[in-house]
Design brief:
By secondary structure, this protein is mainly alpha-helical. The chain folds into 2 domains: 92 residues, Alpha Horseshoe (Serine Threonine Protein Phosphatase 5, Tetratricopeptide repeat), CATH 1.25.40.10; 73 residues. The chain is 53% helix and 7% strand. The protein contains 8 helices and 4 strands. It has a two-stranded parallel ribbon with strand order 1-2. The chain has a two-stranded antiparallel ribbon with strand order 3-4. Helix 4 runs antiparallel to helix 5. The chain is globular and about 60 Å long. 17% of the residues are buried.
Length: 182
C-alpha cells in the first residue's frame, strides 16, 4: 500500500471492517506505524487491530509500553482491561503503574444512572441515554450494555415499559422511589 495521503483510505478500511479481514487491518496499521513508531495514536490503532485478529499478547506488549509512558491515558488503560477480560484475566494480573478507574454494577453506578434520569424529567427516558452518558465518562465498563439493562430492570426503584423488541431505545424509565443516600 502506498505511503502518504490517500483520499480513498476510508474505503479500504470500510471494506476491511465489513469483511472482518483482521489480518489485513493489522498489516495496514503496521504500515502506518512504520517509520514513526513513537506515534501513540498509530500504536493504539495497531493494538486494536491485533485484538480483533486475536493476537492479544502482541497487543498487550504495545499497550504495556504505552501505559508506562502515559499511565493515566484512559484509551490505553481501557484497551488493556479489554484484553484482560477477553483472555479471562483480572485487572490485578497486570502490573499497573497507576490503577485505572473501572465502572461496576454497584450502588454508585446506580446513583449515576439516577442523576442522568433526573435531568430528563419531562421526557421519556431510555437506556440508550444512560449508555451514552456512560460512554462519555470514558471509563472502562466491566459489563455489557445488555448486562446493564438487565441489572437496572431488576431494581425496584425503576419502572420499565417495553414498547417493542429494542430494549435500548424503547424502554421508558420512570423513577418510582429514591432512597436518600447518607
Amino acid at each position: 500500500m502506498k505511503k502518504g495521503y490517500d483520499p480513498e483510505e476510508w474505503e479500504r478500511e470500510y471494506w476491511i471492517y465489513s469483511e472482518e479481514r483482521w489480518d489485513d487491518l493489522v498489516r495496514l496499521r503496521e504500515e502506518e506505524v512504520e517509520g514513526n513508531d513513537n506515534d501513540e495514536d498509530s500504536l493504539v490503532k495497531l493494538a486494536d487491530a491485533l485484538v480483533l485478529a486475536k493476537r492479544h499478547e502482541k497487543a498487550m506488549n504495545i499497550l504495556s509500553r504505552l501505559h508506562i509512558n502515559n499511565p493515566k491515558e484512559s484509551d490505553i488503560n481501557n484497551r488493556i482491561l479489554e484484553i484482560l477480560k477477553d483472555t479471562g484475566k483480572k485487572e490485578n494480573d497486570f502490573n499497573w503503574k497507576e490503577s485505572p478507574e473501572i465502572l461496576r454494577l454497584d450502588e454508585s453506578l446506580f446513583q449515576f444512572c439516577l442523576d442522568i434520569l433526573k435531568k430528563k424529567r419531562k421526557k421519556n427516558r431510555t437506556l440508550y441515554e444512560i449508555q451514552e452518558a456512560l460512554m462519555m465518562k470514558d471509563i472502562f465498563m466491566d459489563f455489557s450494555n445488555k448486562e446493564l439493562a438487565q441489572w437496572l430492570k431488576k431494581d425496584n426503584r425503576l419502572k420499565f415499559e417495553e414498547e417493542d423488541d429494542d430494549e435500548y431505545t424503547s424502554s421508558i424509565i420512570e423513577i418510582l422511589k429514591i432512597k436518600k443516600s447518607k
